[in-house]
From TrEMBL:
SMART domains in alphabetical order: ZnF_RBZ
Any Pfam family matching the protein: HSP70
Keyword set, alphabetical order: ATP-binding, Chaperone, Metal-binding, Nucleotide-binding, Phosphoprotein, Stress response, Zinc, Zinc-finger
CDD domains: ASKHA_NBD_HSP70_DnaK_HscA_HscC (cd24029)
Annotated ranges, domain RanBP2-type: 448-473, 477-501
Family statement drawn from the similarity comment of this UniProt entry: Belongs to the heat shock protein 70 family.
GO molecular function terms noted in the UniProt entry: ATP binding; ATP-dependent protein folding chaperone; zinc ion binding
Name of this chain's protein: RanBP2-type domain-containing protein
Record organism: Streptomyces spinoverrucosus
Entry superkingdom: Bacteria
Coiled coil: none
InterPro entries in UniProt: ATPase_NBD, Heat_shock_70_CS, HSP70_peptide-bd_sf, Hsp_70_fam, Znf_RanBP2
Length: 833
């Protein structure tokens, strides 16, 4: 069987857990701590520091320690939330900049990494510690995210998990995961009735409120609310400013002073959760090494929190109102996140709901990870992660998708010794810093043994499901029945032996915002209203059509937010482009069906015109819609060029153009390329223009050199021949600089020709290639023969007559054939019928 790790990837702290013996068990890290700070650093020797070691290093160099990366993951540099988060960061934090593709990069040591890569390093280290403690490999994971994370953030977390070597079996909202832990404990405490539960999740960087209904075999999320930029780190910032104000207004902006003040604020916040006064000593301070001591009272801290407490109270009341629920209807309030230890936060909830309803039975720091482990035990099927595969209901025992063979287990990974970003084993070079990785191999975890509860055999493999001696069932990875004690297989929410209820079930979650499809007029066709429970069944989207024109692809672009009148005012979730090699003409019918899977990913089934039904999974995109559209249009131009002139292209040209097309196709579907997107588009345009000009000028120079005998001077004919050969040599090598130079020289020679001769030679060649209708073709060939006869006789007047005749015929046939490639075409969006 394949073990699945539950991971609470927090803004400030992370926790891992697995389902062992039918119950969620938190896995301590290598230092024996159940909670690991979500921090990475680089020491003075370039070694990676993780967790508490990284936090400790801030005393020496706070600019080399990354914290709170979760606030930036899955976001673009111009995102308003990113700019707010950057303003709130300490000035001595590691530098953050806009990346080449418009997202965000953070410096770790000598390298700038994306938030996905930083999170992958964190997840990789969490995995190593968990495998060392549990003694089994974890090739799958259930990772939690804030309930208000939009699609790009969810995709970024999934991508970080993949990079860390996991197959991410599920992305679960943190309040939902915490409620799983609550549900198990509720059943153990004898609660069997349906319960309305409010999950109040206040972590280090995010705040979520969820309203749920839990009962025997039933688990439903009805309402969501929250703030992605509110958490314990904001409370630290309040105390940090307060301490600075107490320092007589002196400047303490130096890195060491800034770190000491911030660290003192963090300690004071924690201490004030259990005492009325926190004594603060700051020393040494400033250049002269002075000191300062003082006290922070809880009443003062609570005064600083007034505005945040008001915002949290309003969010709770809003969720209750949207759910048509009164405070007295809530039977239990579940506290999640370390910041719920703050007395003022608890007192405010107790004032609203009553002290007896605010639950303290689950450790707020452990609940989310425990719930993620429970979710792993509830999984019965997996979805294929491949973009165009819509196979559903794959058994969790499967190693790969039965439809397309995509692996359903994470790959073995190695750590780059230079930038520390994980990469799949056998990768030749690090994709980030190009370090040679060919000699590195993944290290398998040391497997422990399982003791059989029936016969006592102690050396059963940890992954075994039955005892090797007596065939008694061992830990099957599912939940333990509270009635009969049997540990069930995964995917069950009731005991397979006695039918006992576990007190939790696969969650029916809801969307926080509207999800809609962008139409050609810029408006949004609503696909899923806010509060839509998911996963959903397939649902049709009626009355759609594609106004084709000269379109070469159809783009499906999904937005998340409240604005139906303007797609651009919402948050772009991502899209999918259907490239049509035969193009689109006129109005074409579009049949579309959509669904949300268990991870809130939008899946599509569509049929354009009378074509076949196709399937697609929405690519959650960090690429802007403008860039995606430009990439799709360029991809269509490449398609047209290869369709029209592919047989004339050299192998090197075809290889180069095909490679660029693959990048454009990926970019048009939302896949970031890890480099300047504007630069990629400019380079793609330049490559296509260079190949187009080179092909055209080679053809015209060759025609002139071969057909111009008697009409053009012999030295000019020789120059044309040699220049055409130079162009072809450059094309065979796909040497862009040489192609441009030879093309320019050939164009200079062609421009020096008599326009009447140049036009006549081309017209003759087109007729010889059957490019004209039969009648026109016969006339051109007759004029050709007459011209050749005049050249042989040396009759200049007859030559001029035939050149004029050929010019008239060329004008006549201009509408039948275009010397250059077909007009630029682009992508189109669906429209309402």
């Amino acid at each position: 069987m394949h073990r699945t790790l539950g991971i609470d990837l927090g803004t400030t702290n992370s926790v891992t857990a697995w389902l062992h013996g039918g119950a969620p068990v938190v896995l301590p890290n290598r230092h024996g701590d159940k909670v690991t700070p979500s921090a990475l650093g680089i020491d003075s020797h370039g070694a990676l520091l993780f967790g508490q070691e990284a936090l400790n290093w801030r005393v020496a160099d706070s600019s080399s320690v990354i914290t709170e990366v979760k606030r930036l993951i899955g976001r673009r540099w111009d995102d308003e939330l990113v700019q707010q988060a950057l303003k709130a960061r300490p000035h001595d934090a590691p530098p953050v900049r806009a990346s080449a593709d418009g997202s965000v990069e953070i410096r770790l040591g000598e390298h700038y990494l994306s938030p996905v890569q930083v999170s992958a390093i964190l997840l990789r280290r969490l995995r190593e510690d968990a495998e060392s403690t549990a003694g089994v490999p974890f090739r799958r994971a259930v990772i939690t995210v804030p309930a208000h994370f939009a699609e790009p953030q969810r995709h970024a977390v999934r991508e970080a998990g993949r990079l860390a070597g996991f197959h991410v079996a599920r992305i679960v909202e943190e309040p939902t995961a915490a409620a799983h832990a609550f549900g198990v404990r509720t059943r153990e405490n004898g609660t069997t009735d349906y319960a309305t539960v409010l999950v109040f999740d206040l972590g280090g960087g995010t705040f979520d409120v969820s309203l749920l209904t839990i009962g025997p075999g039933y688990f439903s999320v009805s309402e969501l609310g929250g703030d992605n930029l509110l958490g314990g780190s904001d409370f630290d910032a309040l105390l940090d400013r307060h301490l600075r104000e107490q320092l007589d207004g002196r400047d303490h902006s130096g890195e060491l002073d800034a770190f000491r003040i911030r660290a003192a604020a963090e300690r004071a916040k924690i201490e004030l959760s259990s005492r009325d006064v926190s004594e603060v000593i700051l020393a040494p301070l400033g250049r002269q090494g002075g000191s300062w001591s003082g006290a922070v009272r809880r009443t003062v801290f609570e005064g600083l929190l007034t505005e945040h407490l008001r915002r949290m109270r309003e969010t709770v009341e809003s969720v209750l109102k949207e759910g048509d629920t009164l405070p007295e209807d809530v039977q239990r309030v579940l506290l999640v996140g370390g910041s719920t230890f703050i007395p003022a936060v608890r007192h405010d909830l107790e004032d609203l709901f009553g002290k007896e309803r605010v639950a303290h039975t689950v450790d707020p720091m452990m609940a989310v990870a425990q719930g993620a482990a429970v979710e792993a035990g509830l999984l019965s099927t997996l979805d294929c992660p491949a973009e165009t595969c819509t196979v559903e209901g794959i058994p969790v025992t499967a190693d790969a998708c039965p439809g397309c063979a995509t692996p359903l287990l994470g790959t073995a990974t190695v750590d780059c010794p230079t930038c520390h970003v994980p990469a799949p084993e056998l990768t030749a070079a690090c994709p980030v810093c190009a370090t040679d990785l060919s000699g590195l191999r993944a290290t398998a975890p040391t497997a422990t043994r399982t003791e059989c509860p029936e016969c006592g055999r102690a050396d059963n493999p940890a992954s075994a499901t039955v005892c090797l001696d007596c065939d008694a069932p061992l830990d099957a990875g599912g939940l333990k029945c509270p009635d009969c004690g049997m540990v069930n297989a995964t995917g069950l929410s009731a005991c397979s032996l006695c039918g006992g209820d576990f007190g939790t079930a696969p969650a029916e979650q809801v969307t926080a915002q509207r999800l809609g499809l962008e139409l050609a007029d810029g408006t949004v066709e609503l696909l899923f209203p806010s509060g839509t429970p998911y996963p959903t069944e397939w649902r049709p989207v009626d009355d759609l059509v594609v106004h084709g024109g000269n379109g070469r692809s159809v783009r499906f672009q999904v937005w998340e937010g409240p604005h139906l009148g303007s797609a651009q005012r919402n948050e772009f979730c991502g899209g999918f482009a259907d490239h049509r090699t035969d193009g689109l003409r006129g109005d074409v019918s579009l049949d579309l069906q959509v669904r949300l899977d268990s991870d809130r990913t939008v899946e599509l089934k569509y049929r354009i015109g009378s074509g076949d039904w196709r399937g697609a999974r929405l690519r959650r995109s960090m690429v802007s819609t403008t860039v995606g559209r430009k990439a799709a249009e360029l991809h269509d131009r490449y398609t047209d060029f290869l369709r029209n002139w592919g047989q004339e292209a050299t192998p090197a040209e075809r290889d180069a153009l095909t490679e660029v097309m693959a990048d454009l196709a990926a970019l048009s579907q939302g896949e970031a390329m890890g480099r300047s997107l504007d630069g990629l588009l400019d380079s793609a345009r330049d490559t296509l223009e260079t190949c187009t000009r080179a092909r055209s000028v080679f053809a015209r120079a060759t025609i002139a050199a071969r057909g111009g005998r008697g009409l053009l001077p012999p030295p000019l004919l020789e120059d044309l021949r040699k220049t055409a050969e130079a162009v072809m040599d450059a094309r065979r090598a796909m040497n862009a600089d040489a192609m441009r130079a030879a093309t320019e020289r050939a164009e200079e020679l062609l421009s020096s020709l008599d326009p009447a001769v140049r036009s006549s030679l081309l017209t003759i060649r087109l007729a010889e290639q059957d490019a004209y209708p039969a009648t026109l073709r016969r006339e051109v060939l007759a004029a050709r023969d007459a011209l050749r006869s005049a050249v042989e006789r040396g009759d200049q007047a007859a030559q001029d007559t035939q050149l004029v005749r050929l010019g008239r015929l060329a004008e006549q046939g201009r509408g039948e054939f275009a010397e250059v490639s077909t007009p630029t075409t682009g992508s189109v969006l669906p429209s309402k019928r």
